[in-house]
Amino acid sequence: MKIQPLSSEIIEDVIHFHGHWCPGLALGIRVAQIALAEIGHSSDEEIVAICETDMCGVDAIQFLTGCTLGKGNLIIRPYGKMAFSFYRRKDGKSIRVVLKNNGKASGDIYYRELQEKMNSGTITEKERETFAKLRFDRCHSVLNAPIEEFFIVEETRETVPPPAPMTGSVKCCQCGEGVMETKSRFFKGEFYCLPCFEKFIPRP
To answer: So what CATH class is 169-200?
Structure first.
């Protein structure tokens, strides 16, 4: 696998798109580099990405691979797993990229302790400065490490998803708002949007 390096300008563009620089975004950049090397870039909908997480790295994948939520060729499966599948429609080639569960991505014990303090709001100003430096160093460590140190590239576990459907809208019988027919629920001769269906139709 020949990974093409990214210029500092492109990395800055990814950070600007996402809003901040963090290890999760750095991991997403590396996943995108693997996808670009093995599957290619999607100018429209010819490549599909399935992300088994909704964390920061998904923004890097959208920005760099051309797979986006709006086009329907980036699909989120919120399993909380750092696993990403990519499919090329024209020839069926696909890969699944999985973060190794070896602890390297989560940092050392001290880093995790500071992260817990940051999350709980108990971190001191000095610890905050230390954490920011460690976080910055981790980002660059992820960017510069060999791919195999962090990731496994394997076969995908499902077939390529069908293209995003283009369907009409129907009117929800409760709120009166329009909803894509494929996203609606049909019950006793009436169309419901999902929020209204869950609110008004009792579950057995």
So the answer is: alpha beta
